[in-house]
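hiii, so i know i said id send this last week but things got crazy w the move. better late than never?? heres the sequnce for the chain we talked about at the cafe, plus the structure i predicted for it. fair warning i was half asleep when i ran it
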Amino acid sequence: MKPLLAAPLALLLAALPARAADHEVRMLNYGAEGGMVFEPAFLKAVPGDTVTFVPENSGHFVQSIVLPDGVAPWKSAIDQPFTVTLEAEGLYLYACPPHLMMSMIGLVEVGRPTNRDAVTERAAKLRPKLIMKAERLDALLSQVTAD
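okay and structure toks below
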C-alpha cells in the first residue's frame, strides 16, 4: 500500500467503533473440571462485551457475587439463558447459588482488575462455604492479571 494511503486508512479504521465480543459460558453438571462447573470458568473481556450464561443441564442459574463499582447486581432465572453486558472495568465474580458449596463459581476479568481487593476480601469469606473443590476459587484468582 502506498504511504499516502496508509495513514488515512489507519485513521479511518481507528475511528470505526470496536465491535463488542459475545462470550458464552455454559453451566454444566459435568465438565472438564469435574462436577458443577461453568465452562469457561475464567474469561477475559473488554468493556462492552457480553456474556451469555447457558444452562446445559437443569437446576442452574447465575448470580453476581462481587462486581466493579457502579455495576448493578444481577441474578438469572433458573434453567434460563441469561446475558449480561460488561460495561465497567474490573472483576465480575459469580456463582450458581444452589451449587456454591460444590464451588460452582466463575470469574470474568474486564480490562484492568480495578476491584481486586474487594474480590480478594469476599473470596476469604466464601472459602468456608466451599465444601468441595475449594481450590477452584484460588485457581480463578491466580489467573487475574497482575497490577
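btw Strands lie at 22-31, 34-39, 42-45, 50-55, 63-66, 82-85, 90-95, 105-110. thought thatd interest u
miss u guys!!
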